[in-house]
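User: I'm putting together a small comparison set for a docking exercise, and I want a reference complex before I start. The sequence is below, and the ligand is adenosine monophosphate. Could you produce the 3D structure with the ligand included, as structure tokens?
Assistant: Of course. I'll restate your input first, then give the structure tokens for the complex.
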Amino acid sequence: MQAVLLGPPGSGKGTQAAALADRLGFQHLATGDILREEVKNKTKLGMEAKKFMEKGELVPDKLILEMVSSHLKPDVAYLWDGFPRTEEQAVGLDAMLAVRNLSVDVAVLLEVPDAIIIRRISGRLSCPGCGANYHRETLPSKKEGVCDRCGTRLEARTDDRPEVVARRLAVYREQTSPVMRYYEKQGKLVRVNGDQPPENVTAKLAAVFEAAKGKSQKVDG
Ligand code: AMP
């Protein structure tokens, strides 16, 4: 079972994927998280990717596809988060899966209005130690600025600055909308309202993924 989570920055993809991965037996694979790790470790890929990330632009498809391919393990049910971001990446993912006799079973689009996204992103904090996510207003840590799980000092992402967020939203509309249509044409797209309490979104997503899992098992045998 392979599931793709689509949606604009700040739509809750990371939060939802983290809430659902263990529960549904998925491995959560977020290209943004892998890239931030590469940047932190100052690898060759990280140094190259940083130039695009800090401007809110997409990292070139070739680099992303090579990176994803190097992380792909056989026989794993992935929940793809933040990938594919362009039609070329969607085609590339299909090709990588096809050689393993797999395909994307379902793509869920989390829909959230722009005004809500900007409010959400401006309060967003994350833990550089363990990757846990927080929000200054809606999901504060117990001790201000410190991770509940591992005690590391929380940070705002450098690309969550308002001018970069505006560019990320524009890039999403221009380059990621075709991905939505790509899955829609294949009858794989399910739209979910992401502008509701997070636990309601989680419940809705769980139902969509369970239904897709049931179908994919029937197809498999
Ligand atoms: P995210 O955490 O998914 O919002 O990603 C943060 C940034 O990493 C994006 O603004 C892009 O610069 C880059 N990035 C993450 N995933 C991809 C991808 N699939 N294709 C291109 N760039 C990506």
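Helices lie at 13-24, 31-40, 44-53, 61-71, 87-98, 114-122, 162-185, 198-220. The domain at 2-112+175-220 is CATH 3.40.50.300 (Rossmann fold).
User: Thanks, that's exactly what I needed.
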